[in-house]
Design a protein that fits this description.
2 strands; single chain; 50% helix; two-stranded parallel sheet; Serine Threonine Protein Phosphatase 5, Tetratricopeptide repeat; globular; 8 helices; 130 residues; mainly alpha
Amino acid sequence: MHFAGQNGSLNVILALVSRGAGIDPTDSLERTPLMIAIENQKSAVARSLIELGADIESIDAYGRTPLMYACKVGSKDIVDLLLKYNADVKVMNKVGDSAIRMAQKSGNQEIIVQLVKSGASLRPSSARRR
């Protein structure tokens, strides 16, 4: 499942799910296929995983959520979709970074604006550590 997410193999993911594979298995870093797809900018796969019910609030070994991955790589369409599904914008990872901080690091102003509209604060103290 992770390999399919990394390579954008949507047909493989759909086949695995139709045969009963779990949608949220984790790798050694506790990353889900959704996180891997987002990290590798495979938007079609990420979108399908979200629509199939992937856990949008899952956290990896570093406390990062799928929303943080999308902000880090600057994937506005996936950020928009995650926000549509009510992804938590106030979570902080283990080093204290939130999704909005990841968007600031990637320099994507559109994502920053969207996160603020969805309740994120530019002040890190309003976030919650995971």
